[in-house]
Description:
Elements: H1 5-23, E1 35-40, E2 43-46, H2 47-63, E3 68-71, H3 72-77, E4 91-98, H4 100-104, E5 111-118, E6 121-129, E7 134-139, E8 143-148, E9 153-155, E10 168-172, H5 180-187, E11 193-194, H6 200-208, E12 214-217, H7 222-234, E13 238-241, E14 256-259, H8 262-273
Amino acid sequence: MSFSRKDLLIVAEVLREAARAEIMPRFRSLNADQIRQKSSALDLVTDADEAAERFITARLQSLFPQCAVIGEESTEKDRSLLSKINEPDLLFILDPVDGTANFASGLPLFGVMAAVVSNGEIIGGLIYDPLGEDWALALRGEGAWFQALEGKTRDMQVAKPAPLNQMVGGVSWGYVDEPLRSTLTKNMAKVAAGVALRCAAHEYRLMASGHTHFTFYNKLMPWDHAPGWLMHQEAGGYSALLDGTPYRPDIHKGGLLCAPDQASWKVLHDALLVR
């Protein structure tokens, strides 16, 4: 499947259009009945999530008539969609508002995410910041970069390897079961500092541009990780599931650890995850 930089920028503009039409008009303007709980108090959906996903889906299906689209909110209604990730030649995976808890509480830290997948392989990643009005973009084999509204670009590069006690990173332990939960939280004292933004979109942007060294995620829904995973990889990083096998968008369990390189991954794995 051929998917060009021009195609990627078409998708980027769709994300911006959705943010302007459906997300930003609702920011800090939601009523209580426009915010709903899904699986837990950590897992919210708002009218903005649902409206933006409908908007993006319709536009992508118009622009790429042969595509399939899987979104976080559509999958909430039909979980069987997750079993179809490896089938289409061109598939878009959407997270219309990543960081919904931040968005719902009026915190300006959220993003719009999309991954481009062909026969199960992630070939494109996009993370749009509706407040900064810029994109983090990645295309398989062509690198990762920031792109401003006026078109100016800046390449992304992960942080250089550092000693364990100088590494800064994020560990998302809210969905981690015991005993690993206690092991992780205790072992975080071994690194320099932790970052928890409640927003994978901005956590991946930070890491892929060298401002943090690592992240660990336990819950691996594809809309949260497929775009940022490719971005991190194209920016020179190394990642793997906890058993050392490569990440794929059809894998939803097993924990994902991202680091500057393979040696750093092994150091972090042993330091954070081993009792």
